[in-house]
Amino acid sequence: MKLSFEKSKNGRSFPVLPSLDVPKKDLPGSLLRKSAPRLPQMAQPDISRHYTELAKRTHGVNDGFYPLGSCTMKYNPKLNDEMAALPGFTGVHPLQAPETAQGCLEVLFMAERLLCEITGMDAMTFQPAAGAHGEFTGVLLIKAWHDSRRDSNRVKIIVPDSAHGTNPATASMTGYEVINVPSDQEGGVDLAELRRAVGDDTAGLMLTNPNTLGIFDKNILEITRIVHEAGGLNYYDGANLNAIMGVARPGDMGFDVVHLNLHKTFSTPHGGGGPGSGAVGCKSQLEPFLPKPRVVRGKDGFSFATPERSIGNVKAFYGNFLVTLRALVYMLTLGANGLRDAALNAVLNANYMMKGLSDIYDVAYPGICMHEFVLTLENLKKECGVSAMDVAKSMLDYGMHPPTMYFPLIVKEALMIEPTETESRETLDEAIAVLREIRAQARIAPDSLHSAPRHTVVRRPDEVGAARHPVLKYNFDGVGD
Amino acid sequence: MAYYVPSTETEQKEMLASAGVKTFDDLFAAVPDSLKIKGLDMPEGLSEFEVRGRVEAISRENVVFKSIFRGAGAYNHYIPALVKQIVSKEEFVTAYTPYQAEISQGVLQSIFEFQTMMCELTGLDVSNASVYDGASAAAEAVGMCRDRKRSVVFVSESTNPAVISAIKTYCYAANSEVKTVPLKNGVTDADALASMLNESAACFYVQQPNFYGLIEDAASLGEIARSRGAKFVMGVNPVAAAILKTPAECGADIACGEAQPFGMPLAFGGPYLGFMTATSEMSRKLPGRIVGQTKDLDGKRAFVLTLQAREQHIRREKASSNICSNQALCALTASVYLTVMGPDGLRSVAEQCVSRARYAAERISAIKGFELLYSGEFFHEFVTACPQDASVIEKRLAGRDILGGLPVDGGILWCVTEMNTREQIDGLVSALKEAVR
């Protein structure tokens, strides 16, 4: 389809604003740009159709099954969106005096209390705008804490090899050296290797539990104890909290700081790549370092306060407020038991699906899984030449979003499947049937999988070519295709 | 109440059996008993009807002002109906990051269009798909300029304080130093900049228009920065960018800013939209997602996430930034806004800001005690003196359903946009006169 720029006609415009009712004043010409930006010039009906066409070429949770591992693509309740569109929230300026923004402050305060209970933390900030931003904030709290104790030799952050790529990237962005520890045979942290890795240069450990293999590390208390005894702090990557919400809490496992992805566990939509929210919770010893400002409750209601040793801003205002609001609406709707039921059914759905596939696909770490599981297609590839990519691309023709591919890195030809609790048994059965059919095809007609998908608007775009000869914007002077 | 779980209790039992276990507890056998909690100490769930009532009541505890004369990083602009409708489409709202290009062409093309528009606006070569907000964009931008020899970041004191704070936070993380460049008459002191920049300077950051609304002589500042071997980074208000000299014309290596004015409501500070553009020389240092054009198996034009060798999921600890989720839906919002407004509409917004702000400045500064603090050219914000405690004035205006300017050191920072009609401005002026009487 054409780009908006290719649909543009000079002079096509319509008035949105009224005419000026004050004297017209211009800035001196010396301050002005030479030519106007070449924005599209389109009529309203055509703009409407342009974006409807783009929407049709976009697959959301609403369009079908979306088992993207570690991304928790659950249903996004519409009530949340409606509440986030209330003018009483959207019309509030972030720098209004607190007495005129009590509702917004109450939202932040309530969300903090509830999420602290869910995670077992003492305090929380909503400033970080996404998970990785939360990681950055959380690790900075660890850094500020060591600095405040003049413990400046702690220059290393330990990260298991099964970790999300953001963990090592965060550690290096916060000035730390990254120490990778391998996983053991069962997919957990190798305790002997961890003991070897820690020392008086350890600033902390970053861990997600359940981990990216979908395994709850049964040694978790020992792991966090080893790090604490070495003088480090423990960071919990909350990307996988959906498995244990209401069952167990990071705060009880020995973690000192945690980030949550409200756009995963707490049902807020992901918008095709954000806005998310990476709320960060911490134990009381880290509270003085939280980003500014924080919401506090006094006798005159809610107001803002700056933590005494704050690391400063990580973003201009108080985070993606409307995302936090959606998460609060979700928590109010589900309540204590509903949140727990969500976790139980997320784990049930993953196990049900894994069982339905385990006789024909290799599960990387067999046994009971948590909210997700990882298939390894290494043998399939040896046997039929069909890769994880081929299987994933084949799913597209069935109207399903493929699982996360080639992650975690420690599993060869990995497909990481996270069904979430909001999928019905029928959907899971259908997905199982599709994956079984693809498996059968792999044996009898592997070539058909190499050329999948067939029915999508484009097929296997050339990513290597895109990176080698980057075309990153519309060429106004060239000829489009 | 298992609110969004489709499985019935009977189904759950059957599924547990299929999975080879008897109870839910069996699924959590790996969790040590000492860690299992009895239940969460929070209320039970409510019906949709009840939640709506409760949340609507909370929203009514806020004051939504009829007239808004406050900016300082969050701006009140008109949002066309088409924008709200389009960005509510569930396909856009409920998609994840477009990893699977075949079923994400809509999101990918919209980002490609967004990147093109940001390049047009700033005059620079390459744009990313967005970052969290203007402050984190600034912090990421200065980070792109550091290398082993040049590690000190210079920031003008005329920058929004929250942006300076974010830059400092990110620099603390990277163990690098930040120095602020002082002001003269409300704008960056060019002589001070020239004497401060040395061979350790990674870059100089200036905000255009600056925090006080004044238009900086960015071209001259850029020349000073580049002559000292430092990169030049401009944080620009995107509405002003529609008419002011572009960052490219000012010699900027990187431009960034807060694009909330392009169709996003004030919403108590977010979600907003950070944007970043750069010269092609800097493109491989840009953080975040970038969409590129390519061809598919059949030779058809297609869009994909590209230049991923910069990113965390490939490079891990060697990535240029850890960012993955950004503000895609907000970038879509900005694209739709710019498409609806078109070049004429956007210029009209900018010009109305200029004219209305001048009208307001003349009328407010004619009141005794509210003289303009600075004489330089300004866009849609300006600072006046304040003859008494600014918070008292703020309260009195609030009584008239007016959100007054932001109290700042030495006075009040006012903001006037296309939303402020002559009637509103005149109303503000009479309310101010009464407030100081």
Verbal overview:
Chain A is α/β, with parallel strands linked by helices and 481 residues long. Chain A has two domains: 256 residues, Type I PLP-dependent aspartate aminotransferase-like (Major domain) (Aspartate Aminotransferase, domain 2), CATH 3.40.640; 119 residues, Alpha-Beta Complex (Aspartate Aminotransferase, domain 1), CATH 3.90.1150.10. Helices cover 36% and strands 11% of the residues of chain A. In chain A, the strands form three sheets. Chain A has a seven-stranded mixed β-sheet, with helices on both faces. In chain A, strands 10-11-13-12 form a four-stranded antiparallel β-sheet. In chain A, strands 8-9 form a two-stranded antiparallel ribbon. In chain A, helix 3 runs antiparallel to helix 10 and helix 10 crosses helix 13. Chain B has 437 residues and is α/β, with parallel strands linked by helices. Chain B folds into three domains: 51 residues, no CATH class; 107 residues, Alpha-Beta Complex (Aspartate Aminotransferase, domain 1); 255 residues, 3-Layer(aba) Sandwich (Aspartate Aminotransferase, domain 2). Chain B contains 14 helices and 16 strands. Chain B has a seven-stranded mixed β-sheet, sandwiched between helices. In chain B, strands 13-16-15 form a three-stranded antiparallel β-sheet, covered by helices on one side. In chain B, helix 4 packs antiparallel against helix 12. The model of chain B has no long low-confidence stretch (mean pLDDT 96).
Keywords:
heterodimer, A: 481 residues, alpha/beta, Aspartate Aminotransferase, domain 2, Aspartate Aminotransferase, domain 1, 2 domains, seven-stranded mixed beta sheet, 15 helices, 13 strands, 36% helix, B: 437 residues, 3 domains, three-stranded antiparallel beta sheet, 14 helices, 16 strands
